[in-house]
């Protein structure tokens, strides 16, 4: 069982979480390239030893990865700032980086660190994954696993009420940087004022797509099929054997459907339809 922690109340929160049964602790921060997070992580490791798995981040550069990894503390590192579907950190502050660029650079430094020190640090690609194809691409770019909010928020099991909008079923979805989340401690220098000066997330709705088992089964089948195309039987082989290439806007258009008339097979077409 994993739990999120921060750099404010970790000395009280971490012991309570471990006593409650947490096995994994992960810093939930939009920017993990700080001495505050490093100090907190080192305190946890010193107090509880190797029995606790510690995740650190988020980072978007090789320099940030090196800073955290060189401490010897993290068991995995999260990559991504501002790429989430309900995150507006880049828009509000100009802080962040394209997810693919960040992941590729951090993965390069991870592999270099492994070659030099013999310690492999798994990477979590966090944010910017809008569909199954992008999940597959993140794994090909060097991620060992991914973090997704919208993906699960759209399912039956997400803990929010269904809402009908124009005949379509949706579920509410909001970011931690919104007033709705009331995450005051993260954004206010004086934590006693409970005043949020600006938001780094939005409050929105996502379409209901079905159960977790259904959407996850589809994602896994797509991943397996792509791995077959590259001759890979596991994710490590997939990362090594996948060939990444830049694509043009035209190739993206070409890769989808074009110059065809699409219609629902559940609807009968008559001559009037074809005429229109």
CATH homologous superfamily, by name? Aldolase class I
Q: Give Rg in angstroms.
A: 22 Å
Strand content: 5-15%
Basic shape: globular
Number of domains: 1
CATH architecture: Alpha-Beta Barrel
What about the largest sheet?
6 strands, parallel
| Text of the CATH class | Alpha Beta
Number of helices: 12
Instruction: Kindly state the number of beta strands.
Output: 9
Strand order of the largest sheet: 1-2-3-4-5-6
Q: Can you give the mean pLDDT? A: 88
CATH topology: TIM Barrel
Summarize, please.
This protein has helices at 10-20, 35-48, 62-69, 89-93, 99-117, 132-140, 150-153, 184-187, 212-229, 235-241, 249-255, 271-275, and strands at residues 2-5, 24-27, 53-59, 76-79, 123-126, 145-147, 163-165, 168-174, 203-207. With 276 residues, it is of the alpha/beta class. The radius of gyration is 22 Å and the shape is globular.
């Amino acid at each position: 069982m994993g739990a999120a922690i921060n750099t404010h109340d970790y000395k009280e929160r971490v012991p309570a979480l471990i006593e409650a049964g947490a096995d994994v602790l992960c810093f939930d921060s939009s920017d993990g390239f700080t001495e505050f997070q490093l100090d907190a992580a080192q305190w946890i490791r010193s107090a509880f030893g190797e029995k606790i798995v510690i995740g650190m981040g988020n980072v978007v550069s090789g320099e940030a990865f090196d800073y955290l990894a060189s401490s010897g503390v993290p068991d995995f590192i999260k990559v991504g700032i501002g790429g989430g579907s309900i995150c507006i950190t880049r828009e509000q502050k100009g802080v962040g980086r394209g997810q693919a660029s960040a992941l590729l650079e951090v993965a390069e430094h991870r592999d270099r660190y492994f070659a030099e020190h013999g310690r492999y640090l798994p990477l979590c690609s966090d944010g910017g994954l809008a569909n199954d194809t992008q999940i597959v691409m993140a794994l090909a770019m060097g991620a060992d696993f991914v973090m997704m909010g919208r993906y699960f928020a759209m399912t039956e099991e997400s803990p929010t009420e269904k809402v009908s909008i124009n005949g379509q079923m949706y579920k509410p979805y909001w970011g931690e940087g919104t007033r709705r989340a009331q995450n005051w401690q993260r954004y206010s220098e004086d934590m006693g004022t409970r005043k949020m000066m600006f938001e780094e997330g939005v409050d929105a709705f996502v379409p209901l797509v079905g159960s977790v088992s259904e959407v996850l089964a589809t994602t896994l089948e797509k991943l397996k099929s792509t791995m077959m195309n590259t001759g890979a039987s596991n994710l490590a082989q997939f990362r090594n054997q996948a060939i990444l290439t830049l694509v043009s806007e035209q190739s993206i258009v070409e890769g989808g459907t074009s110059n065809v008339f699409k219609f629902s097979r559940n609807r009968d077409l008559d001559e009037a339809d074809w005429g229109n």
